[in-house]
Amino acid sequence: MTASNTGGFEVLVYETMSEQEALSILDKHMRDYTMRAARGEHGWICSDCCMSYPEGMPDECFHGHQGCTDIIKRDKLAAMREGNEST
Ligand SMILES: [Zn+2]
Ligand SMILES: [Zn+2]
Q1: pTM to 2 decimals?
Q2: Ligand 1 (single-atom ion) residues, CB below 5 Å
Q3: CA–centroid distance, residue 87 to ligand 2 (Å)
């Protein structure tokens, strides 16, 4: 990747940290959010169907989309593993 595409946000990020660091922070934020939603700690929004689940991540997609359900299952499994590691 290059720094040629400079929107305001990117300029700020490039000035303060490396691209790698910025990406890993964004990644961690998304991951934390997803893991908490998977444990039902806060609501979740499916990025595919834009359906919101105030109770947290459901067991399967409300619309029955297999792709969404696959993601849900994968993330719930990851959240369970992460919970076991930290306790
Ligand atoms: Zn769906
Ligand atoms: Zn979905």
Answers
A1: 0.69
A2: 49, 61, 63, 65, 68
A3: 30
Burial of 57 (0-12, 13-18, 19+ CB in 10 A): buried
Backbone angles phi, psi at 40, to 5 degrees: 75, 20
**43 CA distance to ligand 2 middle (Å):** 14
**More confident site: 79 or 16:** 79
pLDDT per residue over 42-77, tens digit each?
999 999 999 999 999 999 999 999 999 999 999 999
> What one-letter code names the amino acid at 78?
A
Domain of 26 in residue numbering reads as: 2-85
Domains in the chain: how many in total? 1
Distance 30 CA to ligand 2 centre (A): 16
